[in-house]
Every structure is written in structure tokens, then in C-alpha cells.
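Protocol step 4 of 5: obtain the predicted structure for the target chain.
Materials: sequence only (see below). No template structures provided, no constraints applied. The aim of this step is simply to have a reference model before the mutagenesis design in step 5. Sequence pasted as it appears in the construct record:
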Amino acid sequence: MLAAAAALSAAAPARAADPGPAFSDTDILGAPPPYFRFESVSLRFTRFDQTGTGYQSRAGPKGGPGSEALAVDEAQLEVVAKQGERITYRLWVPVDIVTAASPDSIDVVSSASRQNEAASVDLTTIYEASPVTSLSVRNGLHNEENWRSWNTSLGVTRSFAEDNTVVEAGVTQISDWFDKYTLAGAHDGHTARSSTSGSLGVTQILSPTTVGHVDYGLTLQRGQLSNGWNIVPLTSGGVALEVLPEGRVRHALSGRIAQWLPWNGAAHAAYRFYVDDWGIRAHTVDLELYQRVASVAYLRFGYRFHRQTGASFFHTRVERDFTIATADSDLAAFDAQTLGAKVAVDVPVRFARSLHVDVGADRYFRTNDLRVNVFSCGFGLLF
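Step 4 output (C-alpha cells):
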């Protein structure tokens, strides 16, 4: 019997080995990410309330100073999306509702509204040419009642030494086209200005817990550099439209350092030196402290101090036959301070990687009678 069974077994065809369950590449590696996907979607609302006076404003007693009251409600949308593995888009759309006292004083004739709506569309495209090199292109359009503006910029980023050193360079062109007015407020055609900027920056990892950055920027401006309705009080008791130089060369050198703190916080410090050919010199110091208070929440506290000299042609009173003069409080000598705080929460959610919510407030005040309260809240989804 055993011999017969062995013979039958030998005569039977060989049976293929059972390969077991089949696994695809997707089963092993997971589904590849979509070719086009959203990285984040954010909404932000900001309220600016400004009070104070300045001699450039005609919204006040004859001879000034006039009111610089200003209120801005701003809503912003930001969308970051990725196309493939190398292209990233950032779409930014701010919409402003502006209420201002100074333009309103010529509204009867000029139609420069006390309440003005403004909107911008700004798109940045970043292309990762290689693991260490990125190229960026940014284009934007701004539109409001009496103002049109176009901006375009090109940038390149290159990292060295295993990303310990990053060098950035860029150039930006801004073209403005806006209404011009007579002293009486009548429309006097249109005028324009051009601003061309170049910048070069280096970011360096200084230690496992410290990062430093230095940056230099140069801006060349030509054209009508006034807003079209600022005035200068005269010694005779009247007023005249301000007259600014047709060109301006601006230099800015800045440095920043960020330091991790062992109690789960971080400290940022920055300094900026500014100089231009209008005679303005400025020094700005920024200090920020970040403190994580929970795994999903952190606080930010900030302080900023700014000191500048005035433009060489700044005056609160001039003779009638002046050639160049301004009474704009932004071009005067002053000290300014800003105090701010923010709380932010990032919570994991089922339909996204995390939900971000933040609320913040800032108080800006300076020595030549200007104060601004800023309130902001943001909401965003990170995918």
C-alpha cells in the first residue's frame, strides 16, 4: 500500500507554492499625495483705531494741527497650496474699509471719501529648483477709490553647509498711479510714482539653540512722493500743498537673533538702522518673548522702540514762496513705542492636521501726538 501511494504521489503533477496575500505599492508605501493640495487656509480680521493730530491735516483749526483720526477694518484671506513636490503657491487677499478725517476735509469737491474701500490680490509662487535652491515670483494688484498700485518681485534662496547657512536675494518693483488734487480739492488729473527695491540677507545657525539673520535693503523712489492732499501751514496764516523732492534713496540694515529658552520658550531680538537722502536717520529695536503654556497653546509678548530724526525740509510753518516743504508728522523727529501681546492655540482636529486660533492686541504711541490701538484675531486650518 505505501509503495502504491508513493507511486501515485510521484505521478501527480507538482502543486504550485501558495504565494499568500498580494500587497501593492500603495499598501506598503501608502497613497501618494494628491498632485495639487492645500497646505493651509487662514482668515484674519484686524481693527486699527488711530487718534492724534498733525500739521499736514486740514481737518482742524486754521493753521493746524488737524485731526489724524483714522479707523481701518481689515479682513484677510491667505491660502497656501502645493502643486507636485516642487511648486508652492501663496494667495493673499486683504480687504480694507478705511475711515479717515484728513481726506474728508476735501471730500465736497474732490470725492476723496471719508470712507474708502480698498482691496488687493497678491500671489507668490515658489519653485524648488533643487534641494538647496528655491526661486520665487510675486505679483500683486491694489485698487481703491483714488489709487492703483502694481507690484512684482523676483527672489532666490540658496542654502549651504547642510542648510546651516541660507542666503536670500530679491528685487521688487512697485508702480503707483493715483489722483492729484488742487489746494481747493478739485481733481487735477493723475500722477504716478515708482519704487524699486533690492535686498540681500543671510540666515545662520549659530548654535543648536540660536539662529541669526542680517539683511540689507536699498530702495529708489521717483515721481510724486506725496499723497496729493497733505498741506503745509504758512506763516501768513494760509496753507499750501506740501512739495516733496521727486526722488528718494533709502537704505536699511537690520539684524535679528532668535534664542530657544530651556523653559519651553523663545526670545527674539532685532535691530534696524535706516537712513535716506531726505535727512532721516532712524533706529529701531524689537524684542519678543514666546512662552508655551500648554502643548497646544503659547503666549507672545512684544516691545518695540523707534527713534528718528526729521526730514531736513520738515516745518510746521513756512513762507509762501517755499520750494520744498512738508508738515507730515511721519517725517518729523519723534520717538515711538509699541506694546503687544498675543495668545495662540493649535488644536489637532479630525478633518485637518490642526486648527489655529489667535487673538492679539497692540498699543502704538509716539511723542508727536499719535496713538494707535490694534486688535487682531485669526483662524486657520493646517492640512
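Step 4 remarks: Helices lie at 2-11, 25-29, 107-110. Residues 271 and 285 are 5 Å apart (CA to CA).
Proceed to step 5.
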